[in-house]
Prior knowledge:
The complex is a heterodimer of chains A (358) and B (252). With 358 residues, chain A is an all-alpha fold. Chain A has a single domain (30-341), classed as ABC transporter involved in vitamin B12 uptake, BtuC. Chain A has helices at 10-13, 19-34, 41-66, 74-90, 95-114, 122-142, 144-147, 168-190, 193-203, 205-210, 215-241, 251-264, 269-292, 295-298, 303-318, 322-335; strands spanning 153-154, 159-160, 163-164, 243-244. In chain A, the strands form 2 sheets. In chain A, strands 1-4 form a two-stranded antiparallel sheet. A two-stranded antiparallel ribbon of chain A has the order 2-3. In chain A, strand 2 and strand 3 (163-164) form a beta hairpin. Chain B has 2 domains: 1-79 and 170-252, Rossmann fold, CATH 3.40.50; 88-168, no CATH class. Helix content of chain B is 39%, strand content 25%. Chain B has 10 helices and 10 strands. A 6-stranded mixed β-sheet of chain B has the order 6-7-8-3-9-10, sandwiched between helices. In chain B, strands 2-1-4-5 form a 4-stranded antiparallel β-sheet, covered by helices on one side. The mean pLDDT of chain B is 92. The interface between A and B is large, with 37 and 48 residues.
Amino acid sequence: MYFIKKTSYQQDIDHFKHNGQRFWYGLLLLTILLTPTTLSDFYLGELSFVFIYAIVGIGLMLLVGYTGLVSLGHAAFLAIGAYTHAVMLAAGLPFLASILIATSFTALVGGIVGIPALRMTGIYLAVATLAFAIIVEQIITHWESVTGGFRGMAVADAEIFGVSFVDATSYYYLCLVILIACILLALNLLRSPSGRAMIAIRDSEISAQSMGINLLRTKSIAFAISAGFTGVAGALFSHRIGYLAPDSFTLLTSIQLLLMVVVGGLGSLQGVIYGAIFIGMLPQAIAVMKDTLPAVIGQLPGLEPGIFGLVLVLFLIYEPLGIHGRWQKIRRYFEEFPLYRKATYKRQRSYLRTERVR
Amino acid sequence: MSVFQAKDLSVSFGGIHAVREVSFTVESGEVFSIIGPNGAGKTTIFNLISRLYDVDSGTLIYNDEDITRVSPHHIAELGIARTFQNTELFEQETLLKNLLIGRHIHSRTNIVSEFLFLPSVRKQELAFRQAVEDVIDLLDLQSYRDQHISNLPFGIRKMAEIARALCLQPKLLLLDEPSSGLNPEETEDLSFWIEDINEELGVTIIMVEHDMNLVSRSSNRVLAMADGKTLAIDKPAVIQNHADVRRAYLGD
């Protein structure tokens, strides 16, 4: 075990706590940058999907993992981002302006959806956001003059200042740059007063309020930020699938997105990345398995949602802290090698909160 | 000069009259205690002051300003901080983060600059750290700085709550049973800290407390309550020998 010697307050504020982190994250970045030289276009495309999922995941994590508000409606924000972007592009706007408008508009809608969240938590909020998602799905289906309804609408090619981002490699880099930007923005938010206000609301609304945190404002902002990130991802998503139709943004998508942050590990941004890799890669893994497994199992209908569900249940029972939580335990085991106590992460029941003010 | 004034406060929940026409005035620089048997309405008065409950009738006046209808988060901005009887800390975060959240009302940065972490935000964070470190020093919490609240023993959590409230730099501090759950030694320390907070930082304190020893050592005046009603307001020594107060605690 080692301890970090702190000599200035800056060290607590900086993103990297010590040089070891700088080295490993640098190496990771280098690997990701060099990946396109070795992988085929198909896998680069899948990786772009992972990046896009990760951007949604950041937004959803800020809401679910850091503000403590559940949303089952994030497919709707993804759809709003995607359609707004596609419509703006069709209207002849350049890529950057269009993606900005898509983001701001999605954030605005998110902020409005967040207002009722003041009075709702847990399952009630989940149902309310679910209702919102269904409303948006209906609007997209029936507003044919703009969205093309069930026929769908084609998305114009991505092009920034004359540079085309159509092929897999360049699109991979575009998604990567935006993902890194989003991670940095989220990290900055979390080390600032507004991010801490969100965390405060997650852990105790009552004392957040008496610390001077405006619940309505903060919850609404959290929804707006979350929707904003999802909006950016939606815009990137639209290029990736090339043709938008309502069936890309269903309830199942929302559940998958929520699954991503839960499996990754609530309350950590690293968890988002693990979760994104997980839900981005699982369909591929299942496809490969289908070929190798005996036909009786491999050809079962509903195999994919079944496995998704099974994984979620297993995580909730055996590792509620998600992949990130598991990784931390493993790391701690090696750090403290002969002294590791199994009970370190044992959950304790607390009987202290008897007279909570509601 | 009076800092805080409650006039004829009443509140009832269904058929229970939790507080009935209670009036009191807290002078600047004072330590004012509220005592009474369980269910007397002491904590309810705190929840009325921090605006978690609405009063049915009566007025709350803070520095000549009517705060009876002010929104709850605005109370902190006015300089009124509080602690909770059973602690309401941000469990999943470190002590340091908890204290930094206590600085929230002093934040002057907007969300866009925070996203970009502009130099102004960094400067503010450093200033926050300085202020938080002063409180940590005052209450001797150095060794718990980076620990998660959920790992801390109850006595430290109680102090952490007081520390968090002090990070607001309040003018009026409401302590809800600060000594409950503390051992005699910790209670002893607490009485010194209350003195320090009151005298060195110049914070006026209203305290709900059961430990009569602590009450008589620390407070200037005491309000004794039973069944939501005022029994007496006087110096601790007088209250201890007050006939009505004795009856409320010990019966006839």
